[in-house]
Amino acid sequence: MQRIALETTDLAVRYGASTILNGLNLRVMQGEIYALLGGNGAGKSTTLNAFLGFARAEQGLVRVCGIDVGDDPLGARASLAYVPENVSLYEHLSARENLEYLLNMGGRTGTATTINTLIEAALNDVGLAREAWDRRLGAYSKGMRQKVAIALAVARAVPVLLLDEPTSGLDPHATSEFNALLLKLRAQGVTVFMVTHDLVGAAEVADRIGFLDHGRIAHEISAHGPQRFDVQHLFQRYADARRAA
């Protein structure tokens, strides 16, 4: 039976006098790619912060892999990997060194050989060129940095990946590589939840696309058939959501 990876129930989040999420009901299943779109101020970033435990719920529930984020934010966060729009890693370290340091910080145990094998498998899994593994990240492109961040998630074996504007600033080739990586992760059972403005990119990989409007899901569309989505219909829904924002 497919399990629920991410869930909000009647979620309300307010900042001061402003209501950002207003009765948000959302379910993302294990091994699903879900894309959340909406105009500026619709509540997309707040939704990510709610799953991360950084946005306090005024009412309703937030769960990650069945863990109530309000009751156990650290436990919920242990099941997640978050990749922001601008990946923050250590510029003076190589990809291998970044992963080794961050895994150690996260409490990963094992011999040096075991950890190195795990790191190399993760870097290989995300498709980072082997000759780049020992180069400092200061010389990396944005797409390469994203691969390192996702390699950390792979090495940690977390079941859920949160992405904030993952294809922003990527050229078409890098975007294609990134989407192929997401499909590979989905095939391994990883849940991917992305916030994006890239409607065409989302349509290429998402199993479902939700349109957020004033803190609620206004429309939700599932991929169907060989064409997956009616892109013209998606653009109309997106335009409606942006006009309403």
From TrEMBL:
InterPro entries on file: AAA+_ATPase, ABC_transporter-like_ATP-bd, ABC_transporter-like_CS, ABC_Transporter_VariousFunc, P-loop_NTPase
One MF term in the entry's GO annotations: ATP hydrolysis activity
Pfam families: ABC_tran
Signal peptide start and end residues: none
UniProt domain ABC transporter: residue ranges: 6-239
Keyword terms: ATP-binding, Cell membrane, Membrane, Nucleotide-binding, Transport
Entry annotated with the keyword Membrane: yes
PROSITE patterns reported for this sequence: ABC_TRANSPORTER_1, ABC_TRANSPORTER_2
Official protein name in the record: ATP-binding cassette domain-containing protein
